[in-house]
Amino acid sequence: MHVFRIFFTLGMFVAGAALLVAGLIASSGVLLVVAFAAMLVAAVLFLLVKGAFALLQGSGDGVSITSGRVPASIRGPLREARQYARQIKRTVQQTAPGPMKERLTRTVQPVDEWLATLQRLEQSLARLYGQHNLPREMRRAAAEIEQLRRRMALSDAEGEVASLRALVNSKRAHLAALEELQNYHNQAELKIRKIASDLGTTHAEMLLITTRGNFSESRFQRLDESLQDNLASLRDIVAVMDEMTVSGTAAR
């Protein structure tokens, strides 16, 4: 999509420039046309380099969610968690060959799967928050309920009152579902923040182990369990997010 936008913009720019060149040829000398053509080539090259640089910046691991509706309170912990995961792998790579490095290598085996699962979570979050603007939807549902209640209080027709009451009940059910979804968003945010914090702790403990040279199997087992628990939590969040995304798409 980024490539399409870049070349579409360039195409429009070149088309407009071609019209200008034609006008210059008809009204001016050859030198002026050559000067303008040189400026045009320089501008096109600048746009190409700028677009290529932007693509390279956006081609890293994971899916960028900075431009969507995902709140900063979730984007921050996701970046932090990814950074800690990479630092954990880097710590093992920088450890001198020997039993310590072999044991650390076994400990961090889940990290690659963890990073892949994190990428899936980012994709699910981007889709989910793209489908819903929960604060706005909840405000609108609450306002509609209040308007219907006022209308029901002013109505004297039994049939209309019954219809309004049924509609109010439906709107309340909708609002309750939105509130439940918002509650899950809040829980997911707290879980993601905890995962990022746990990974930071794991990284710090690995640094202590490698710095002190303290080969403690019990400590390694705690690290193993921590990484496995975080991976399981991440899988659970992704599974629920995927289910919500599918449900939201089907409801449209």
Describe this structure in words.
The chain is rod-shaped, with a radius of gyration of 28 Å. Helices cover 87% and strands 0% of the residues. It has helices at 2-27, 30-57, 72-93, 99-107, 110-131, 134-154, 158-212, 217-251. It contains eight helices and no strands. The protein is mainly alpha-helical. The protein folds into two domains: 2-57; 72-251, no CATH class.
Question: Helices, strands, pairings?
Answer:
Layout: H1 2-27, H2 30-57, H3 72-93, H4 99-107, H5 110-131, H6 134-154, H7 158-212, H8 217-251
Helix pairs in contact: 1-2, 3-5, 3-7, 5-8, 6-7, 7-8
Describe the structure concisely.
The protein has 252 residues and is mostly helical. It has 8 helices and no strands.
Largest sheet: none
Query: Which residue ranges are poorly predicted, with pLDDT under 50 across at least 5 consecutive positions?
Result: 1-5, 49-67
Count of helical regions? 8
Apparent shape: rod-shaped
The rounded distance between the terminal residues' Cα atoms is 24 Å
Q: State the total count of DSSP E strands.
A: 0
